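Entry 14. Ran structure prediction on the chain below.
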Amino acid sequence: MDETIARRCVTIARYMLEHRATVRQAARVFGVSKSSVHKDMISRLPQIDARLAREVGALLKYNKAVRHLRGGEATRLRYHPESAPTA
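Output, structure tokens:
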């Protein structure tokens, strides 16, 4: 595997874990497609660092489990922006 791709996989994986980021969020930050991020995390990362791959796998599983909640929140904010939480 190309050293550049291996380095990208580890960097994106660490970012995702540190920020609890989704595949889309990580893709946006690193300027690659979400398909590339997903391929990196699912196929390439286990060959590079199995422990890191397990941690990212758990995060991806969690993100998949709550995606319906995120989608519902996005729809609510689209149609009722005044109900957005204030920080």
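The mean pLDDT is 91. Will compare against last week's run tomorrow.
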